[in-house]
Amino acid sequence: MACKCTQLFKICENKSDIHFISVIPEINKKLTIFLKELSIPYNIVENIISIKEDNPKQFFQKYISTFKSYFNSLETDEIKIYIENENNKLSFSTILYAKSLQKYLNYIEDRSFFDILENKSITTHFQPIVDMKDSSIFGYEALVRGVMPNGDLVYPDVLFEKSARNDMDFNFDRLCRENALKTTAVKKVDAKVFINFIPTTIYDPKFCLASTVKWAKQLEFDPKNIVFEVVETQKVKDINHLKIILNYYREQGFLIALDDVGEGYSSLNMIIDLKPDIIKVDRNIIDNIDKDEMKRSVYRALRILAMENDIKILAEGVETANELATVKSIGVDYAQGYFFAKPAAEIIREIC
Description:
352 residues, elongated
């Protein structure tokens, strides 16, 4: 099965017909009233309302606020848009590719994100992961940052929120993985590197992960130094498919870590089923663990589970000496958090 890669969404800037398509009569009536109030001539054929515009992109830029105030989110999801010009003729088959009005509004609102994606304007910061045996640096988590034209950074929560709502997760996730590998090579990192990936974007690992594996081999990484870390685990519904993805990574020699353990992975049986090399205990459990007996009980159970199944445990989000002392007293292999260092563009070679 080939990979269902999403093409980068763009809005035409050439003279075109914009077709609004809906099968709900009430929405069509509301659309005609909307266009009349804006004094925009339109034509109706069955369930398709059409207008002519010299520049569709400018049209949506001009009326984005008006659309958002006039139609609610259910309506903007229901209304489909198809832009017809000499290169994209309207037909029964092309209507199937019509996108919701909401996607067009998102595109205008999230223009900075699309610029980052189109220009590959991202950088990778690294946060050290400390080996608790001797306080040496075991590895680094590679964390994406978007870069605005003025040099300002855009953080992952914003980037992935915009990526998800614009159906760009595949493109953005792949870009992040490849940038992490390339930056790791440039920085001459001689340690494990944890690279996040979103499993829900991968339809067939042989195809969808081909470029990631290619870069890893081309940059001559020791596979055992690359740890692919599953993110958004709570959204994974098909565990068998996730196992196929993880097994593919293992076949290439890479290690596997599960993020948000204790949060997204609520089922201990699921951890055993996936058999990761490392589990990263969610920062919500680590936060104030020294003051919360319930959190210590959860962590203790995870520690026992990890030890009995030859899984390393990593405490994520350690911010205080008391939190670190608590997880060390229960048992921990690796730790990561602001207590040691914040993510930075330059590699921190040792922890003071």
